[in-house]
Amino acid sequence: MSLQPEWSEADRTELAGALRELRRASGLSGAALGAKVYMSQAKVSRIETGRIVPSVTDVELLVHALQVEPERARELVGLARVANTEHQSNRVMQRRGYGTRQRDHLAMEEQCRLRRQFLPTVLGGVMQIPAYTRRAVTDPVLEEPESMIEEIMAGKRLRRAVLDRPDKRFEFVLTEAALRTRLLDATGMTEQMDDLVATAARPNVTVEVIPFSTELPTGPLNMFSIYDDRLVAIEDETGLLMLRDPTDIRYYTDLFEVFRGYALRGDEAREFVRSVADDYRRET
Question: Which structural domain range is residue 80 located in?
Answer without folding.
Answer: 9-85
